């Protein structure tokens, strides 16, 4: 990947609530009155804790729904769900797992065959792929799932609101069932994003593609952290590791195991689906004219803003928010752009994305992810790094030629000194393919010598006058293999 900055074990993980309780109390009282890939192949069929007990009632409901809607083309009945494209609603039968008040939650809504019911809030009696079909049936479109390996750090797709009710009672937002014990508030009522689970090879090894959430744990229908295989993801950056232990069963909504609920799925806000604004931000350059030009384009390449400074373009982006949905930005940088012109725009975009004001898309093929240009400054020196990857230095020579060399700083520990000294190994790089060849040769030599492999990181040092295109020409041979590339403009 290009600037695969989620190599978190080595250089950090930059892939980095309000609540109302009244309706939740109402739902709890109603229940009391009744007395009631990450995706991992399931290599065994072991299940821990209780199992769903409502299968017989689910079958009864299915039969009743099939009889009630027989011959109606506007109603789709599948096991555990009923979808109505006239009302644009999907009703999914769910069952409480019985986790107690304040219990840590890993999962929100999982398939009844998941082996993670012991750490989930609800089981779904509808298969994940059937929920997907039902959402498409009522007119919603799946987008793209959270996928750090493809530099996609936001889930994309139509918004879906989820509400829960008991026996036709007043629906309650599903977010009210989960409490963040750091903020002491329930989850933000932002709904979910219909990403659709990814397709993966079948666990039986026969090569057929299957719907991941049907075949691989956690078999997530709706997730409370960014999960690549979930049907419905949260509309924000929610790292599983950072949230571990924070999201718990709301004490006011701790229901008995086996309680059957209906989950009502509807599009967007107030029954409407709000499309995510999608734009392209181009950084152009003309040395003979005005220098850098920032151009924001929308559908059919319509120019929405153009300026020699970034501020008017950023203001236009902020104005494009729809129903609190931040615009998705595809960044394109011209090959003749000097490297010295990239840092400030990259920092501004990173700040806006961190604040949730926009969502950066993966870069065009063959380009660097924009956060490659905002590394931590302390990594410039060997003493400030958690480990020592290869450095790659480019410099300009006469007649516009580019010279390159690889540098490896290897730690040397002596006596009881808690800080190492460094030996410096330098290799010349005459042409782009030599970078790939020398990295491969070094890796093979390390394996043969019983040494640990170096981190899949490349720290690149360039002068501000070097063009972006010249940098990419040298990096092309390694873009598919080095998990993280950071660029320092000196």
What does this structure look like?
There is one protein chain. The chain is 19% helix and 28% strand. With 490 residues, the protein is of the alpha+beta class. It has helices at 8-11, 22-34, 55-68, 128-137, 212-215, 240-243, 311-319, 343-354, 432-448, 468-475; strands spanning 40-41, 75-78, 81-84, 89-96, 107-111, 120-124, 158-165, 172-173, 178-180, 185-186, 192-194, 199-201, 209-211, 216-217, 220-222, 232-233, 247-249, 260-267, 278-286, 291-297, 303-307, 328-333, 359-360, 390-396, 402-412, 421-429, 457-462, 484-489. Strand 22 (328-333), helix 8 (343-354) and strand 23 form a beta-alpha-beta unit. The protein folds into 3 domains: 16-267, no CATH class; 278-368; 375-489, 2-Layer Sandwich (Nucleotidyltransferase, domain 5). It is globular and about 80 Å long. The strands form 6 sheets. Strands 2, 3, 4, 5, 6, 7, 8, 11, 15, 16 and 18 form an 11-stranded mixed sheet that branches. The protein is built from 10 helices and 28 strands. 38% of the residues are buried. It starts with 7 loop residues before the first helix and ends with a strand.
């Amino acid at each position: 990947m290009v600037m695969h900055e989620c190599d978190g074990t080595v250089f950090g993980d930059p892939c980095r609530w309000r609540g109302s309780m009244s309706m939740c109390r109402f739902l709890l009282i109603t229940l009391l009155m009744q007395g009631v890939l990450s995706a991992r192949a399931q290599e065994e069929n072991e299940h821990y804790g209780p199992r769903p007990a409502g299968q017989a009632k689910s079958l009864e409901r299915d039969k009743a729904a099939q009889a009630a809607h027989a011959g109606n083309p506007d109603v789709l009945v599948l096991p555990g769900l009923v979808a109505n494209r006239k009302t644009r609603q999907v009703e999914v039968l769910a069952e409480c797992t019985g986790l107690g008040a304040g219990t840590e939650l890993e999962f929100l809504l999982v398939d009844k065959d998941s082996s993670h019911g012991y750490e989930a809030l609800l089981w779904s009696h509808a298969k994940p792929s059937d929920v997907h079909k039902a959402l498409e049936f009522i007119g919603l479109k799946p987008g793209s799932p959270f996928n750090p390996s493809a530099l996609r750090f936001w889930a994309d797709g139509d918004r879906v609101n989820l509400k829960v009710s008991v026996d036709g009672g007043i629906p309650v937002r599903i977010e009210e069932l989960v409490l963040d014990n750091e903020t002491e508030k329930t989850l933000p009522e932002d709904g979910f994003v219909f990403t659709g689970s990814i397709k993966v090879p079948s666990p039986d090894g026969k090569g057929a593609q299957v719907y991941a959430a049907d075949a691989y744990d956690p078999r997530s229908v709706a997730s409370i952290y960014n999960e690549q295989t979930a049907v419905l993801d949260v509309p924000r950056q929610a790292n599983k590791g950072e949230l571990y232990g924070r999201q718990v069963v709301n004490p006011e909504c701790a229901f008995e195991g086996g309680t059957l609920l209906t989950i009502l799925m509807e599009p967007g806000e107030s029954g409407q689906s709000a499309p995510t604004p999608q734009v392209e931000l181009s950084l152009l350059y003309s040395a003979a004219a005005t220098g850098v030009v920032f151009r924001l384009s929308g559908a059919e390449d319509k120019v929405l803003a153009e300026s020699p400074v970034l501020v008017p373009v950023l203001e236009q982006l902020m104005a494009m928010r729809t129903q609190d949905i931040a615009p998705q930005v595809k960044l394109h940088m011209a090959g003749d752009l000097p490297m010295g012109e990239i840092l400030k725009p990259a920092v501004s975009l990173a700040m806006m994305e961190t604040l949730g004001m926009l969502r950066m898309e993966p870069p065009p093929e063959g380009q660097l992810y924009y956060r490659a240009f905002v590394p931590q400054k302390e990594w410039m020196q060997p003493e400030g790094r958690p480990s020592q990857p290869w450095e790659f230095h480019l410099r300009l020579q006469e007649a516009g030629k580019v010279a390159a060399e690889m540098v490896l700083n290897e730690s040397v520990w002596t006596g009881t000194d808690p800080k190492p000294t460094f030996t410096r190994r330098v290799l010349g790089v005459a042409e782009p393919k030599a970078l790939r060849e020398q990295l491969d040769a070094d890796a093979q030599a390390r394996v043969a010598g019983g040494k640990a492999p170096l981190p899949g990181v490349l720290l690149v040092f360039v002068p501000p006058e070097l063009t972006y295109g010249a940098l990419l020409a040298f990096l092309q041979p390694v873009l598919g293999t080095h998990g993280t590339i950071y660029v320092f403009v000196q």
